[in-house]
Amino acid sequence: MRISVIQMNQGSDKAANLAAAERLIDAAIAADRPGLVSLPETWTNLGGGRDSRRAAAEVLPAPGGSGGPAYELLRGLARRHGIHVHGGSLIEDGGEKLFNTTLVFDPSGAEIARYRKIHLFDITGPDGTGYRESALYGAGDALVLFEAGGLRFGCTICYDVRFPEHYLALRRAGADAILVPSNFTLQTGKDHWEVLLRARAIESQCWIIAAASHGQYEERDAQRSVYGHSLIVDPWGHVLAKASDGTGWASARLDPAVLARVRRDMPVLEHRAARRIAL
Length: 279
Prior knowledge:
Blueprint: E1 2-7, H1 14-32, E2 36-38, H2 50-56, H3 69-81, E3 84-86, E4 90-93, E5 98-105, E6 111-116, E7 122-124, E8 130-132, E9 137-138, E10 145-148, E11 151-155, H4 164-172, E12 177-179, H5 186-204, E13 207-210, E14 214-219, E15 222-227, E16 231-233, E17 239-242, E18 248-253, H6 256-265, H7 268-274
Parallel strand pairs: 1-2, 2-3, 5-9, 11-12, 12-13
Antiparallel strand pairs: 1-18, 3-5, 4-5, 5-6, 7-8, 10-11, 13-16, 14-15, 16-17
Helix pairs in contact: 1-3
């Protein structure tokens, strides 16, 4: 199965972000013919503050129902191109709280997965900038997997990547590949992004598929930067594809024979189960 990760430089104009996502997905499909495309985290809105996020949020329908503009765009792209579309994450209006939520659609346009980000980004960056995702967003509480192209994909979002137990749980649940749509900050990204993604691939023996946002955006009259460098990593930890700076995409083929060989020759999941250490 061939995968494309889409790299965007979204801002606070939702309509412009939707149009940019559609152009990039159409171009990636025309060039590389993927069976699945993946967008970055909160690709419908980045920056602009709380009011902008709430304005961009959508109430998600019950499966089969009609949704908002981003929901319908993702469904329409999947149906038009006959592929799986992993919608990175968008902002879900959950009433009192928003949620950072992934949606996945199959080639018929049916929604097949919905994941709410579990680990919320409440940190202080190296430059002293504070991030408090929990002030606006609620946290999810469930693992989510879906099937596409004969493989099982696990869903995570951005900060989840710092919690290896989350990835091990997905592997135990049957994941062959794990998606990590992200808005990684420039400061943390330059030191940790590729290291963390390759480590999660090696530990879980899964492909890691990480579409990321790139460039600058405005947040309450201040400029912030996200790292980009969207990656696809194989189960041995090799980087198969990486997006250049700027908007664009990167594509790679997931070969099931590679997955089978890595897990056969180094059966770490079986060894972990057989040799539990009491701490």
